[in-house]
Design goal:
single chain; mainly beta; 14-stranded antiparallel sheet; 3 helices; about 55% strand; disordered N terminus
Length: about 280
């Protein structure tokens, strides 16, 4: 089951990282594409891709993961996830999420339907085996929660505050299909980055993983994650009112896990041709 948990967390991490659709012909469309390196203790174990489309206040995001570098010696698994929804002020309001992957000759699948900031339905495979210690996920735990991919998008106000403490002043309630947890962000600093398709400031947030339900509190993996000091860097790619992950770090027992952008591409100031 340790591989099962690790695979789910990988999709929740970068992860933890991405009202109505504006219906006018002038709705601006921003497209962001990214390649991410995944390393542990400085060794490359995987590659990730990100595709994000922002059209008015609607978003559509897609990520893919596959082994790379030394990771190909231990795993042939790969997978991906997709999410869509709306940005309403400072809130993300997802509508759907799917994740499918294969690892260690096992298939993993999640399908969530969402609305009004809640998880409406969930279809997952495989199911957890019964365990008396596991905290049951109730209907209440699915209220005011979102999928892991939608949680990677950070709406902010335009201006200096967008890359200041206010950007990190939030708790992200996440449901991945099996477990419910919170990611508590807090402001650390701002930095300048360059040379990977984006030149400019990023806001650096400290992050804490808080288990809520679906977990077994006594397990070493849960204790380790809950006590780890994580970090997330966010950049205003394409639009100044929406931040996306640039770098995520998580301490593991085998070294620091880092998911970091290696190449970013953005296309902004476009108009939705299909709406004309």
């Amino acid at each position: 089951m340790s591989g099962f948990r690790s695979k789910r967390r990988l999709f929740a991490v970068p992860a933890i990282a991405f009202t109505l659709l504006a219906g006018t012909a002038e709705a601006q469309t921003n497209r962001i594409g990214g390649l991410y390196d995944i390393t542990v203790a400085g060794l490359t174990i995987g590659r990730g891709t990100l595709s994000l489309v922002l059209q008015g206040n609607a978003y559509s995001a897609k990520v893919g993961l596959e082994p790379a570098g030394i990771g190909t010696l231990f795993s042939t698994g790969k997978g991906g996830a997709e999410a869509a929804g709306w940005l309403v002020g400072s809130k993300v309001m997802p509508s759907r999420y799917t994740m499918a992957s294969r690892a260690a000759n096992r298939d993993f699948y999640v399908s969530l339907t969402q609305g009004s900031g809640h998880i409406r339905s969930a279809d997952v495979a495989p199911q957890f085996k019964p365990n008396k210690e596991r905290i049951e996920v109730t209907k209440q735990h699915r209220q005011n929660a979102m999928d892991p991919l939608s949680a990677a998008l950070v709406p902010v106000s335009v201006g200096k505050d967008g890359l200041g403490p206010a950007a990190c002043k939030r708790k992200l309630p996440v449901f991945d299909g099996w477990t419910r947890f919170d990611i508590q962000l807090s402001f650390k600093e701002t930095r300048e980055v360059s040379g990977r398709g984006y030149d400019g400031p990023v806001v650096v947030c400290s992050a804490k993983w808080i288990p809520v339900a679906g977990h077994r509190p006594s397990t070493d993996s849960v204790k380790h994650m809950a006590s780890s000091d994580m970090e997330a860097w966010f950049a205003p790619m394409g639009r100044k009112d929406v931040l996306v992950p640039y770098r995520i770090t998580i301490p593991t027992r085998t070294g620091q896990l880092v998911v970091e952008a290696s190449k970013l591409r953005l296309s902004d100031n476009e108009r939705d041709q299909a709406a004309r």
